[in-house]
Design brief:
With 130 residues, this protein is mainly alpha-helical. It is 92% helix and 0% strand. This is LSME1 protein.
Length: 130
């Protein structure tokens, strides 16, 4: 019954402890230096190994998606502005037509008032004569 010597196991445990302390210090340093979002991406890069290439592809894809979204937003905005300008001109034309009709109706009403006054005068004069 041989017991394994503690001396043989101690160096391995000691080395593992050193690695654990160094790893903990590195993680603490990352937490202090990097914000939470970048820390998350750093941890993903460490875990995946080849994530740098996929992250670059993802960034390119995100930039392309952002660019397409930006262009579509600009096109839609341009269409909406054009439609609003069209509505403004259309409304201006309608208002001009209505105001010209009102002016002509005002003239007609004034002429009718004059005719009414002339008829009343004539009737008054004819009553006086009778």
């Amino acid at each position: 019954m041989e017991r394994p010597s503690l001396e043989f196991n101690l160096p391995d445990t000691h080395e593992e402890g050193k690695l654990y302390v160094v790893d903990s210090l590195n993680n603490l340093n990352k937490l202090n230096v990097c914000p939470a979002e970048s820390q998350h991406s750093l941890d993903e890069e460490e875990n995946t190994g080849g994530a740098g290439e996929s992250m670059a592809g993802s960034n390119t894809r995100n930039q392309c998606l952002f660019f397409i979204t930006f262009i579509l937003t600009l096109i839609i905005s341009l269409a909406l502005v054009s439609f609003v300008i069209f509505l403004i001109f259309q409304t201006r034309n309608e208002v001009d037509q209505i105001s010209s009709r009102l002016l002509s109706e005002k003239k007609n009403i004034e002429e009718l008032k004059k005719l009414n006054n002339i008829i009343l005068k004539h009737l008054n004069q004819s009553r006086i004569k009778e």
